[in-house]
Design a protein that fits this description.
Radius of gyration: 22 Å
Shape: elongated
Strand content: 5-15%
Number of helices: 3
Distance between the termini: 56 Å
Length: about 110
Amino acid sequence: MNTGTLALHPYSMEQAMVIGTMTSKGQITIPLEVRLELGLEAGQQIEFEVADGKLIGHKVIAIRESDLWMTHPEVVAMVAESQDALERGDTTGPLEFEEFLTALDSSTE
């Protein structure tokens, strides 16, 4: 709804892309365009931070505790190395399957 008011960024004075309005209870409706672009659905958690006078929101992606091993730096590095090897045409990858499992077991200890 156009009320005849122009929303501007406070520092650049450029027109803001999308606007959300905060209620008296501190609730903000995230505009549809933003929800669609980020794939946000009802009940989705959003993490907020303030940096340099800006409110920044990040979509929270839940990971089951049993899957946390996938985020371990050594596992991430092994997966990246395997992907690089496959892109080079090395279909065996940098590790044989049993070596990968052994390395994976040791990284979760």
